[in-house]
Amino acid sequence: MLKPVPSSTWPDSWRASFEYDRKEIFGEQTRSGYAYAYAARRKAVLDLVRRIARPGATVLDVAAAQGNFTLTLAEMGYEVTWNDLREELAGYVKLKYERGTVHFAPGNLFTTRFSGQFDLVLATEIIEHVAHPDQFLMRVAALVKPSGYIVMTTPNGEYFRNRLPRFSDCEDPSAFEAVQFKPNSDGHIFLLHEDELNVIARQAGVSIVECRLLSNPLTSGHIKLGRVLPFFPTRIVLGLERLTQKGPLPLRRKIHTHFAVLIRKAG
Q1: How many CA atoms lie within 13 A of 40 on its CB side?
Q2: Can you list the residues of the chain whose pLDDT is less than 50?
Q3: Is 166 exposed, middle or buried (0-12, 13-18, 19+ CB in 10 A)?
Q4: Which residue from 60, 195, 202, 255 puts its CA 20 to 30 A from 2's CA?
Q5: What is the per-residue burial (b if ≥16 Cβ within 10 Å, else e) of 99-130?
Q6: 207 touches 263 (CB < 8 A)
């Protein structure tokens, strides 16, 4: 993946994307909570993709933003379609393109027409931004071939610092339609709990194969630990993450910030 050279002519969305890329891809601020948490999600996603799809498989990367998964998977040999509501970001993704097969299909996922179904749909950090996560998963499931998969990441609603409502407790999700699709954590509407993920998966006609919990408060830099995190050696931080992964499930659900979810569509 190529590193773009910033220009004064870039639109604001490209500038914002490059700032994220500096932390996510290009190795700056590698000991920040944001960087550790992103690295954990990235590793989990790529591990799951390798496990269920061989190079050559068709992948749709939903709400793919600056295209880091799109480009990485293309470089790994997958045929990837980039999608995002912000059409202008396709130009930024193309600046970073180095090799592999990438198609571009910008637009609203609910209304965009795609060329067909995919072996795998990737939906990272998006379902928490939509007013109807149940309808979102139904739409994603419709884009997956029979026996295909969805790989999704989303914040864990049971994390002890979460103050957002449960989707299942909301009587009228349409009240949030005016504020959906906003980027960053300010745009979060619902943070799903694992039991809710299972319910909406069944409604969409798919089943959860694995629900992996990621990132404890230290590796996320939460509860003021972000101030000391840069002083911890990386091996210590990752060692503590592995340790918390082995705790009792009720405790893990409370102290980890994110899910990586593998979902399968029946054949």
Answers
A1: 32
A2: none
A3: middle
A4: 60
A5: ebebebbeeebeeeebeeebbbbbbbbbbbbb
A6: yes
Residue type, 190: F
Give the helix/strand (H/E) hosting 206.
strand 206-214
Instruction: Name the one residue in this structure whose structure tokens are 């004064």.
Output: 8
Q: Which residue has the tokens 């884009």?
A: 143
Q: Residue type at 105? A: A
Q: DSSP state, 167?
A: G
pLDDT attached to residue 182: 84
Radius of gyration of the CA atoms of the chain, in A: 18
Q: What is the DSSP letter of 4?
A: P
3-class secondary structure, 264: strand
Structural fold of domain 29-265: Rossmann fold (3.40.50)
The single-letter code of the amino acid at 252 is: R
pLDDT in tens, 196-227: 999 999 999 999 999 999 999 988 989 888 88
Dist. CA 155–CA 153, nearest whole Å: 7
Interstrand relation of 258-265 and 101-104 (parallel, antiparallel or unpaired) = unpaired
Specify the DSSP element, H or E, that contains 44.
helix 33-52
Q: Domain boundaries in the chain?
A: 29-265
Phi-psi region of 125 (alpha: psi -120 to 50; beta: other; left: phi over 0): left
**Predicted TM-score (pTM) of this structure:** 0.94
Q: Note the pLDDT of residue 115.
A: 86
